[in-house]
Amino acid sequence: MTPLYAFYGDDFTGSTDVLEQCAEGGVPAVLFLREPDAALRARFPEARAIGLAGDSRSRSPEWMDGNLPRAFASLGNAAIVHYKTCSTFDSSPHTGSIGRALDLGVAAFGGPAAIVVGAPHLRRYVAFGNLFAAAGAEVFRIDRHPTMSRHPVTPMHEADLIRHLAAQTEARIALVPIDRIHADEADAAFAEASDADGVLFDGLSMDDLAATGAVLLGRKVGFAVGSSGVTRALVLAWRAAGIVTGAANDVRAAEVDRLLVVSGSCSPVTARQIAQAASDDYVGVRADVDALLRGETAEEERLIRAASDALGQGGRAMVHSAEGPLGSTAPAAGDRLGAALGRVAGAAIREAGLSRVLFAGGDTSSHGVAQLGIDALTWAAPIERGAPLVRAHAADPAIDGLELVLKGGQMGGDEFFEAVRRGG
């Protein structure tokens, strides 16, 4: 069966967010953690949406040139291919360039590409081309967001997304503004921009996403860039057109008695979660980041022993590299740190025979989970919006069936770790 939809996730956390949107819309989906060959795809014959989890968010444009075309080709002949970004759209000309990904996608699939960043289900909004995102109870313009404006690798200093992309690509970007969407003129506005390379859609509500999805489906757009707002827009359009009729998956997760948390996040949100978890009897194990970055196996072994001891005694352990924002001089080494933390997690999972683990932080999730030898992930159950429980499919019996939550730094309430252990 030809997939309705395929996506490449620029990190693992955002990729599982797409699985959640598909599950809520009744769309069977699978997320591959390696480029799928025929044998791997054949293991998931029911999937109508397929994805490939990547780590391009932390990569250079040159890396993208050498890797994204092959990754896009591996997704096959889906009706639309989506380059999935974080809903905060953070990127730069040198790291995680969404502009370069846009160029490569248009070259592969044709244009104009649809750019959909607003994700009301995650409290991310776009109005007249400007991005706004929630932090706690408040909503901030992204260049004033308390975390994303100070991101250690890709700080967002520009809220106007067309201007933001202009620093990364020479592509011509047009806008379907919110007033025209509300005037039922989204399709006309998109048609007027037919000579653009990309068309950015505003979005404040689910109704706005429904209008956007109708344009993408009706115009047979072949390539899209943006958040899981793309997925939600398409799901709404498919259901409205009767293309998808399956019931939403309403499975709930069971509680487990042991949980390992592995965090490379430096978000204030994650810092609060770490503090709360300490009050909930989680044993905190602080990593020596410098030692990990130097490749010292003794530090990895220390973390493995400490995590295994904590899991054996109280069942709750968290290995973390930070407790809040880093200084401006901190090195940008999320790939190496994430990989080291992934090796620690893999050893602790196998030693303790764990059934559930939580990774916190985009780079930690992408580079850490890559160390576990997982072939694919499927949706398992909801936990909190944007951070679902997923199930691993792997050749290693210790990893096959493992339940994971991959949490971006901004996701979750203060008691999120315990919510994951309890199953929501």
Q: Any key phrases for this structure?
A:
424 residues, alpha/beta, Rossmann fold, Molybdenum Cofactor Biosythetic Enzyme, Chain A, 2 domains, 15-stranded mixed β-sheet, three-stranded antiparallel β-sheet, 18 strands, 37% helix
Biggest sheet: strands side by side, in what order?
Answer: 9-10-5-11-4-1-3-2-16-17-18-15-12-14-13
Report strand %: 15-25%
Helix content percent band: 25-40%
Average pLDDT, rounded to a whole number, is 93
CATH topology of the largest domain: Rossmann fold
- Uncertain runs: none
Look at the structure and give the CATH class of the largest domain. Answer: Alpha Beta
What's the gist of this structure?
About 35% of the residues lie in helices and about 20% in strands. The protein is α/β, with parallel strands linked by helices and about 425 residues long. The strands form 2 sheets. A 15-stranded mixed sheet has the order 9-10-5-11-4-1-3-2-16-17-18-15-12-14-13, with helices on both faces.
Structure explained in plain terms:
Helix 13 (334-352) packs across helix 14. Strand 7 (130-135) and strand 8 (138-141) form a beta hairpin. This protein has helices spanning 12-24, 38-42, 61-74, 98-109, 161-166, 178-182, 186-192, 206-218, 229-241, 268-279, 289-293, 297-313, 334-352, 362-369, 416-422, and strands spanning 5-9, 29-32, 49-53, 80-84, 113-116, 124-127, 130-135, 138-141, 173-176, 198-201, 223-226, 259-263, 283-286, 316-320, 356-360, 374-384, 387-394, 403-407. The chain folds into 2 domains: 5-241, Putative sugar-binding, N-terminal domain (Rossmann fold); 259-422, 3-Layer(aba) Sandwich (Molybdenum Cofactor Biosythetic Enzyme, Chain A). The chain is 37% helix and 22% strand. The protein has a 15-stranded mixed sheet with strand order 9-10-5-11-4-1-3-2-16-17-18-15-12-14-13, sandwiched between helices. A 3-stranded antiparallel sheet has the order 6-7-8, with no helix packed on it. The chain has 424 residues and is of the alpha/beta class.
